[in-house]
Specification:
469 residues; binds zinc ion; alpha/beta; binds N-(aminocarbonyl)-beta-alanine
């Protein structure tokens, strides 16, 4: 199958030019002006952007969490992703305490079998190095294409690890070429504050945010940075929300340490106002780290502009409001933590980042596709438009208006964090390895088309770049 995309404005992290793109055998084989080739399918992209398929490095599909299971499985979550222009994501395998990493991987792969709409890889979340997985087994994962280890410094009594587990995992990563990822919040502090709030009768969703102060995130972020430096491991801090966490990351990067940070779409737009909404509606905005004071929005835009933060993910971890979030109706600590977002990352960052002049189109592509692909061993197969790369392409109409609403989304959840937001610019055609996935409002391809991607080990070139910067 060959595809010719004619006359689009190709935007990568580095370039912006008008050309034709020719796709053969799932990869881009030619890029040039007025290409004289015949193709099985011709797409007129004049007036449209041609972007690389986006890469979301942080999702949770079909994941048991908070006494329930996320509502989006691989099929519905990846369908939502495809409509939002995301063609690859990296999902978190959670090692159940007492389980080996091999068993956890087998379990996650069985959840994806036959359901994949886009391409995917896995991170391994390490929860237990005593009774299940061992350091030796952990060291074998990069050979399976799992080249990142995730540790939760919060969720005490569930996923949280102690500093010894964190540090020992970092030591393994420094040997095996894996990137260490941390959910950085001080879980012991939060546990005390939550118990105190409940004892005082404070049960509303707002107390989720008040018991997880920015200092808890700042302290854990700095601790992880220092431990990773001692271990000689590269570190990626997920879902950074506030000045207290941005500052230690920026400092470490200025010093040339191998530290990167990510934020998520929702932290630019949701705030304490949302989690304070009456009639339990605030529960829709219960995720961790929590929504912050609005003053952090500018901190985050500045951080992504200056590369203090290097990627924007979704942390898609969707629950129903009705039936799942309501598990915490009388106790905020029982509200499952997480929110949806896979479908709207490009909509929101294009509208309020690129169109609003906060970041360039090139930087938008870098944050949503190229940097995640580089950091997580997917580049240059994914994350750019180039000869030899997978033909994962988004034909994006920068003029078409779209209203974001739960009523037209593809996630199974019953609400949207950006309900009613009108944006100008939306994907029109989305291709995965040259196969048309989405055309307008239609999902054209069938589940099963997506593949597992074994990721490369953490890139030495990134470490060198960081040291020079
Ligand atoms: O609240 C969140 N973010 N849920 C998903 C798990 C995590 O902490 O990333
Ligand atoms: Zn987290
Ligand atoms: Zn997450």
């Amino acid at each position: 199958m060959s595809v010719l995309i004619k006359g689009g404005r190709i935007i990568t992290a580095a370039d912006d030019y008008v050309a034709d793109v020719y796709v053969e055998d799932e990869t881009v084989s030619l890029i040039g002006e007025s290409l004289d080739v015949s193709a099985d399918k011709v797409i007129d992209a004049s007036g449209k952007y041609v972007l690389p398929g986006l890469v979301d490095p942080h999702t949770h599909l079909d994941m048991p969490f908070g006494g329930t299971v996320t509502i989006d499985d691989v099929e519905s979550g990846q369908t939502a992703a495809a409509f939002g222009g995301t063609t690859t994501h990296v999902d978190f395998i959670i090692q159940p305490p007492g389980s080996s990493f091999a068993d956890a991987l087998a379990d996650w792969r069985s959840k994806a079998a036959g359901k994949q709409v886009i391409d995917m890889g896995y991170h391994m979340a390490v929860t237990d190095l005593h009774d299940g997985g061992s350091l030796e087994e952990l060291a074998t994962l990069p050979d399976e294409g799992i080249t990142s280890y995730k540790l939760f410094m919060a969720y005490k009594g569930a996923l949280m690890v102690d500093d010894e587990t964190l540090f020992r995992t970092m030591e393994v990563a420094s040997e095996t070429g894996a990137l260490v990822m941390v959910h950085a919040e001080n879980g012991d502090l939060i546990d005390v504050l939550v118990r105190q709030a409940l004892e005082a009768g404070n049960t509303d969703p707002l107390y989720h945010a008040l018991t997880r102060p920015p200092e808890a995130e700042g302290e854990a972020t700095n601790r992880a940075i220092q431990l990773a430096h001692v271990a000689g491991a590269p570190l990626y801090v997920v879902h950074v929300t506030c000045r207290e966490a941005v500052e230690p990351i920026a400092r470490a990067r200025e010093a040339g340490w191998d530290v990167w940070g990510e934020t998520c779409t929702q932290y630019f737009f949701n705030s304490l106002d949302d989690i304070s909404k009456p009639n339990f509606e605030g529960a829709k905005y219960v995720y961790s780290p929590p929504v912050r004071d609005k003053s952090n929005w500018d901190v985050l835009w500045n951080a992504v502009r200056t590369d203090a933060l290097s990627a924007i993910s979704t942390d898609h971890c969707a629950f129903l409001f009705d039936g799942q979030k309501t598990l915490g109706k009388d106790d905020f600590s029982k509200i499952p933590n997480g929110g949806p977002g896979l479908e709207n990352r490009l909509h929101m960052i294009h509208e309020f980042g690129a169109r609003a002049g906060r970041i360039s189109l090139n930087r938008m592509v870098e944050l949503l596709a190229t940097s995640p692909a580089k950091l997580f061993g997917l580049y240059p197969k994914k994350g750019t438009v180039a000869v030899g790369s997978d033909a994962d392409l988004v034909i994006f109409d920068p003029e078409r208006k779209h209203t974001i609403t739960a009523a037209n989304q593809h996630s199974k959840t019953d609400y949207n964090l950006y309900e009613g937001t009108e944006v100008t610019g939306t994907p029109e055609v989305v291709l995965l390895r040259g196969n048309v996935l989405v055309e307008g409002e239609e999902l054209v391809a069938s589940p099963g088309i997506g593949q597992y991607v074994a990721r490369a080990k953490f890139g030495q070139e990134l470490r060198a770049k960081s040291a020079i910067a």
